[in-house]
Every structure is written in structure tokens, then in C-alpha cells.
Design goal:
Elements lengths: L1 H25 L5 E5 L6 H16 L3 E4 L11 H9 L4 E4 L8 H9 L3 E5 L10 E4 L3 H16 L3 E7 L5 H13 L8 E8 L4 H14 L3 E6 L2 H12 L8 E4 L3 H9 L5 E4 L2 H16 L10 E3 L5 E3 L5 E3 L4 E4 L9
Parallel strand pairs: 1-2, 1-3, 3-4, 4-5, 5-13, 6-7, 6-8, 8-9
Antiparallel strand pairs: 10-14, 11-12
Helix pairs in contact: 2-10, 3-4, 5-6, 7-8
The structure holds alpha-L-rhamnopyranose (RAM).
Length: 333
């Protein structure tokens, strides 16, 4: 039995080395690839940056991560312009706005710089590939289903979002609103959409405002890692703890204590490190002329394996995970 295990791991190791060698052959060395998240200095994007930088290092490229400290619609424009001036081979960005960045991204592409969006997209003409963390439909419907379960299918609830212009949150909210028209959710009422701007203090204050303005509130969905952590911190010391069900998209490390103290029962997310890693590989595949971003293109993303480009240049990382008391300690990001 022991022998077999050793043999198996030796085989796995050989297979791993073989695919690593393949990667070296397929991708250009020395590519300059820049990660440009929505905002810097929040754990979620530090993790996506690190995933991207890990991939770039594996590929023998030159990676860097830059970005604004706020999520305003045009806060990334000057960064894009600088990256163009630096003649990066590719820009990998999570967009703060669907349209505001398109003119500068078009300028980048006209100069041969490849553009990959991840997490939050721009209009299709502003990039070659979009790495979606999961199917938007699955994320949005999953959030409503989870909250409905927590609220017993009944009552008023609010959404505490990121910035009002965030492409990803707005896509999810629209799908949530459509989903609420289903008979299964007829007793659930969305009373307010608030915006914490992916700012901890603003999100905290918005959560406080929601609980004060809607005394019958039974639930809150915060589909942002910053928002859900700040909302949980507020709720954890409020008399409403246990009465208002809070869920959303959070990182296990930021949410662990709120799961353990009973403020939050369950929430969801994907692996942000893998998201950044996959996005950087897609950028390298474009910059190495392995793919153009058209439907059906395939590329190998190191440890994550093979991915196929779908409609409108979209690549999907995989389904999100639901975290609760039973599994949260298995995750460290
Ligand atoms: C925040 C950002 C990001 C979003 C996650 C869930 O970190 O708004 O865009 O995908 O939350």
C-alpha cells in the first residue's frame, strides 16, 4: 500500500514536470505583464495580485502590480496610460467601470498590448479576454438562494454593494432582481440597494444606516469582500445579531471570526489567488500569440490545467464555494 502511494506520487511529479516543460515551450519568456486591480490594499485584490505574480514568475516573465486606492469610475485611467508608456506586453485588470476605461484600453491594444479583464469586465471592445470568477448567473442566483434559505423565504432585505459603477456587482444585482420575480421568492422584498464603495468605513456606516432605516429588515446580501466584512463587524455587536441574516461574497480569513461567533451562518466566494493566476496565464497566452481571444481558443494555465475561451471572449474559472462553520477552517485566503 505504502509502495503504491510512493509510486503514484512519483508519477504525479513526473506528469507535473512534463506539463511545466510544455508551458515553457509554449509561452514567450520575459513578458512584461502588469496586474491592475480595482483597488490596492484590500485582501481580496492582494490575493489576486499574488496569484498573477506567481503565474508570471512561473512563466519567466516580469510582473508588477499597481492600482488606485479608491474604486472611482476613472481612477484606473492614469495607471493604464502609464503602463502603455512603459510598453508592457499585457495589462490584466479588474475594471471599476464598464465604459470609462475603454478609450485608454483601445489605445493600449492598438499599440500591441494585450488586455485581459478579470473579476469585473469592461465593454467587449475594451479587452481581448475576460476571466470570470464563476458564471455571473450562478453567483447571483446562488446568493439569493442562500439568503432565502437563511431568512426562511420571507421578509425585507437589502443589498450592500461596492461602488455604484462596478461592472461585476451591477451584473449580479440585475440578475438577482430578475430572480426575485420567481414565485419561490414572492415573499422576499428587496427594499434598498446601498453602496459602501468597497471602503471599509463607508460600508460599516451604510450597514448601520440600513438597520436604522428598515426596522423590519430580515436580511442583507453584501456581494463584496469589503462590504460583507464591514457589515459583519457592525452586526456582531448590534442587538440585531441573530435577527438580521447577513450573507454575501467574502474571504474566509476576513469572515472566520464572524462565522465562529454566529454573526454570519454562510457566505460564498471563489479562490481569488486562482483567479489572478488564470488571468495572468491568459495574458501570457495572448502575448505569446497562442490565442487571440476568439471562441474555442484553448490555453494551458499551469497548475489549473486547460481552459477554453467561450462566447464574447469569456473564460470561467469555476463554481464558487459556500463557506460555513463546517468547512471554513480548511481555507486560508
Ligand atoms: C470585492 C470587489 C471584487 C468582488 C469581490 C467579491 O473584493 O468588489 O470586485 O469580486 O468583492
Amino acid at each position: 500500500m505504502k509502495k503504491r502511494t510512493v509510486l503514484l506520487s512519483a508519477l504525479t511529479l513526473t506528469a507535473g514536470l512534463a506539463s511545466a516543460a510544455l508551458v515553457q515551450n509554449t509561452y514567450k519568456k520575459g513578458l512584461k505583464i502588469a496586474m491592475l486591480p480595482k483597488i490596492i490594499n484590500i485582501p481580496y485584490f492582494t490575493t489576486t495580485d499574488n496569484g498573477g505574480l506567481e503565474a508570471i514568475k512561473e512563466l519567466g516573465g516580469i510582473g508588477k502590480a499597481v492600482g488606485p486606492s479608491d474604486g472611482g469610475a476613472s481612477s484606473q485611467v492614469s495607471y493604464i496610460n502609464t503602463l502603455i508608456a512603459q510598453r508592457q506586453d499585457a495589462i490584466v485588470l479588474a475594471a471599476n467601470d464598464a465604459n470609462a476605461l475603454v478609450p485608454s484600453l483601445k489605445r493600449a491594444m492598438a499599440q500591441g498590448i494585450k488586455v485581459v479583464t478579470f473579476d469585473s469586465d469592461v465593454a467587449v471592445e475594451g479587452r481581448q479576454i475576460f476571466i470570470n470568477q464563476a458564471k455571473s448567473d450562478g453567483i447571483a442566483k446562488g446568493q439569493i438562494e442562500l439568503l432565502s434559505k437563511l431568512m426562511g423565504g420571507k421578509g425585507e432585505f437589502a443589498i450592500l454593494s461596492a461602488t455604484p459603477n462596478a461592472t461585476n456587482q451591477n451584473t449580479w444585482i440585475k440578475i438577482m432582481q430578475d430572480e426575485l420575480k420567481k414565485p419561490a421568492y414572492k415573499d422576499m422584498k428587496l427594499v434598498k440597494i446601498a453602496y459602501g464603495n468597497d471602503d471599509d468605513q463607508k460600508s460599516f456606516t451604510e450597514m448601520q444606516g440600513l438597520l436604522q432605516a428598515y426596522p423590519n429588515l430580515k436580511g442583507v446580501i453584501s456581494p463584496t469582500t469589503v462590504g460583507v466584512a464591514a457589515a459583519a463587524r457592525y452586526l456582531s455587536t448590534s442587538p440585531k445579531k441573530g435577527q438580521v441574516m447577513l450573507t454575501g461574497l467574502g474571504t474566509p480569513n476576513q469572515m472566520r471570526s464572524f462565522i465562529k461567533d454566529g454573526t454570519v451562518t454562510a457566505f460564498q466566494l471563489w479562490n481569488p489567488g486562482d483567479l489572478g493566476y488564470l488571468a495572468a496565464y491568459a495574458a501570457a497566452a495572448l502575448a505569446s500569440n497562442q490565442v487571440t481571444g476568439k471562441e474555442g481558443d484553448t490555453f494551458t494555465a499551469g497548475k489549473l490545467g486547460k481552459y477554453t475561451v467561450g462566447k464574447n471572449g469569456e473564460v470561467v474559472l469555476g463554481p464558487p464555494t459556500t463557506f460555513d462553520k463546517a468547512n471554513i477552517d480548511k481555507f486560508n485566503f
